[in-house]
Design brief:
The structure is a single chain. With 160 residues, this protein is mainly α. The chain has three domains: 31 residues, no CATH class; 53 residues; 33 residues, no CATH class. Helices cover 49% and strands 6% of the residues. The protein has seven helices and two strands, in the order αααααααββ. The chain has a two-stranded antiparallel ribbon. Helix 4 packs across helix 6 and helix 5 packs across helix 6. The termini are far apart.
């Protein structure tokens, strides 16, 4: 916090250390301290976890990542550490569902007629300019009026 305020706002260190009840020497000791071996190991693990996550196309959970790290990169680490580092990296696995066929086409039962085929043939006749008759289709809700198109015919000179 002191470092953020110092860089962002330009506040001096001494008043901020007094306000936060921290010694100035303690602040500088913390600031100049080298990262611990645990932190360095965590950084190395983060890279390995991200690589395992990408190898698994984003579908691996922490248990599978642990197994992957042990097999591929020979890194043995605890599951909770992997979970903590995944949270820090904001990595979540995708939920992949198995394909389930919802239609059984190989049966001997009678198949209902295709009512939409009638509509498409009717629309084809309208588009081609052929005369159509007024038509309606009865469904569960009520009656759907499809409409009609009336075409004038050209009289030939021999007809009255």
């Amino acid at each position: 916090m002191i470092e953020q305020l110092r860089q962002g706002q330009g506040f001096p260190v001494s008043p901020m250390c007094r306000a936060l009840d921290v010694s100035k020497s303690g602040y500088y000791a913390w600031k100049n301290r080298k990262p611990s071996s645990r932190r360095l190991e965590d950084e190395r693990l983060k890279v390995a976890i991200r690589a395992a996550h990408e190898r698994g196309r984003g579908t691996y959970g922490p248990e599978k990542i642990q197994e992957e790290l042990a097999e591929v990169e020979n890194i043995k680490t605890g599951i909770n550490r992997i979970k903590r580092l995944r949270r820090a990296l904001k990595i979540r696995c995708k939920q992949v569902r198995k394909f389930k066929a919802t239609t059984d086409s190989k049966h001997n039962l009678p198949v209902a007629p295709n009512l939409l085929d009638k509509i498409s043939r009717f629309q084809d006749r309208i588009k081609s300019g052929l005369p159509t008759s007024p038509t309606s289709i009865l469904n569960r809700v009520g009656c759907i009026w499809l409409g009609s198109r009336i075409f004038g015919t050209k009289r030939s000179s021999g007809m009255p």
